[in-house]
Amino acid sequence: MIPPSGETLPSTQRVLVVDDNPLNCDLLARRLRRMGLERVDCVDNGEAALEHLRAHAYDLVLLDLMMPVLDGYGVLTTLRAEGQLPELPVLMVSAADEMAGVIRCIELGAQDYLTKPINAPLLEARVRATLERKQLRDLMAAQLERTQRDLLAARRLQLSMVPPDQPEPGPHGPLCVAARLKPAREIGGDLIDHFPLSDGHYLLALGDVSGKGAEAALCMARTVSLLRATARQHWRAGQDPAQAVAAILAETNEALAEANDSAQFVTLFLGIADLHADRLSYACAGHPAPYLCTPGSVQALGVSPSLPLGVMPGYGIRVETVDVPPQARLLAYSDGVTEAFDRAGTAFGDTRLAQLLTGCTSQLPQHLVASVADGIHAFAAGAEQSDDIALLAWMRP
C-alpha cells in the first residue's frame, strides 16, 4: 500500500513528467524524487510522451496543458482512443487561468490537476492519492483476472464431467447417445450423465440444481458422484430396472436432504434403458418429462407429480415404464430450454419445443441436440441466456 504522508513512496513506481519548460520539468522531477519516486522520466512535448508511454509501463503522468508539437488535449485524446485511460492516471499541470482547459482534460480522462506555481505539499498529496487509487485498481484487476482464470478452469472441469457422445452403438449395447450442456454463467448447476450398466442396460440422467454459479456447480458435482456411487451399489445383473431407479433416487434424496442448510434441491430425470426388452424405466423428481419422438409423433412421457431431490427425506418417487421401439428418439432437457427468452421477454415454451422436435424425429441424437440448441439460439436472437441449458438425446438404432 502507499505509505502515509511524510514517508517515502515505493521506488519501483515510474512517473513521466511532460512539460516543454526545462525548469518546470527539473523542479517536478526533483520534488518527486524527494518523495521516494526514483524512476522519473522527463520529455518536452506530447509526441515524445506518447512514444515513452508506448515503450514503457508508467504508474503516473504529470502532463502540461499547453505545449508545442502536441499539447495535453492531443495526448489525452490519443490515450483515450488507445484504451489506456483510466488505467493510466494523468495529473494535469496548468496555469491558474486555464481552468476551462483543465475541465476539458478531466472530461477527456485526466484524474486531477495542479496549478502553477506548484505547491509542494499539494503535489505530494495529489500524487500519493492518485498512486494509491491506481494501486487499488491494479490489485482489483489482478484479483479479477485470477477469479476469471479459476472460473474458466472450473467451467472446463464441469464440461469435462459430461460423458462423451456415443454416436454409434458401443460395446455395451446398441444405444446412440448425445448431450449438450451450456451454463448461463461460467459455471452452472445442470448435470448430465450416462453410462452402461451390466447385462445390456444403460443409465441416463439429466438434472437441474436450484440456483446458479459456484454453489450450484458444487451441488451438481456432488449429485453426479452420488448417482454413480448408488448406481454401482444397487445395480445387479438381472435386477428389475424400475426397482433400481427407485433405490438410486431414494438413497440420493436422503443424502441430499441430510443437513441441507443451504436449502438446495435438484430436479432430476433418471432412467435405465433395457436394451434387450426395448423398454425404459424412469422417474422425474420435479423435473420436466422427456419427449419420445417417433416418425409422425412427438409426445411427452407421462410422469407422476413429485418433489425435487433434497427437499425432504423419506420421500418416495414413483417409477414409470414405457416401451421404446427401435429407431425412437428420446430427449431429456432442463427447464433452461423452455424458459429461454427472446428480447421481448417471451419464453421458448413447451409448444415451440414440441414443434421443433416434430421436424427432428429422424435425426441422430447428436444432430437432434444440435437442432434444439440452434433453435433456442435463433429464438433468443441475442438475448442474454438466463438459465443453464442441458440436453440429452438417445436412440436404439
Automatic annotation (TrEMBL):
GO terms for molecular function: phosphatase activity. Keywords: Hydrolase, Phosphoprotein. Pfam families: Response_reg, SpoIIE. The keyword Cell membrane does not apply. SUPFAM superfamilies: CheY-like, PP2C-like. The modification 4-aspartylphosphate is found at D64. It comes from the Bacteria. InterPro entries: Bact_Sigma-Reg (IPR052016), CheY-like_superfamily (IPR011006), PPM-type-like_dom_sf (IPR036457), PPM-type_phosphatase-like_dom (IPR001932), Sig_transdc_resp-reg_receiver (IPR001789). Residues 14-131 form the Response regulatory domain. One of its GO terms (biological process) is phosphorelay signal transduction system. PROSITE patterns: RESPONSE_REGULATORY. This is Response regulatory domain-containing protein. It comes from Immundisolibacter cernigliae.
